[in-house]
Amino acid sequence: MAQQQESVVTPERFASGMTWQQYLDYIKRNKDKFLYNYAETELTEEEVAALRELASRPDGPAKVLALGEDWCPDVFRGLPVMARMAEAAGMELRIFPRDQNLDIMNEFLNQGKYQSIPTFVFYTRDHRYICHWIERPALANQEMHLLTSIFEGRSREEAMPEYEAFQRGPVWARWRRETVREIIALLREKCVGE
Questions:
Q1: 175 pLDDT exceeds 90?
Q2: Using CA atoms, how far apart are residues 187 and 170, in angstroms rounded to an integer?
Q3: What is the dihedral of CA 53, 93, 40, 32, to 10 degrees?
Q4: Which long-range contacts (CB under 8 A, 24 or more apart) does 168-172 make?
Q5: pTM of the full predicted structure?
Q6: If phi over 0 gives left and psi between -120 and 50 gives alpha, with beta otherwise, what is residue 193?
Q7: CA distances from residue 102 to 48, 62, 70, 96, 114 in whole angstroms, order as listed
Q8: Torsion of CA 92, 97, 100, 106, to 10 degrees
């Protein structure tokens, strides 16, 4: 992709982003949900090995930029997954609030028009763009009806207990797992050609 040549994400801009811990200290909402999803994300030995192998390549992902907002369920599920993956791989993760960094967001719009989050942008050690991943895994999109059905014909207040339980249940966990699988597959495709 040619977008890297005019990118607003210079090495200096990337370095100005927040670390995972800084982001946790910064956010105002859903900190418990970020921490829960982080604690519940476990990588298999095979996944850790794959991530480390990819990150060790000269053209591999040494850096990952994340765009998100603390109110977004896809972010408080997906960003902790990315934090775990970055730690396992030894990737440098830098997090940017989307709404304060719309110039970055506009480079990585979903389908060229949507400001979907989280967005994860992968770079090599020398800051060459590799690829990016947006919002949620395909499986979550296919299963979104399981989530939306909770709210059908009910007030938000009535639906919230079931919605909260959903966020701690097996479907939510499957979406975290699928995020790991999908991102590893994407990185393999871009870095190894698999």
A1: yes
A2: 26
A3: 180
A4: 168/36, 171/143, 171/146, 171/147, 172/77
A5: 0.95
A6: left
A7: 32, 24, 16, 10, 12
A8: 70
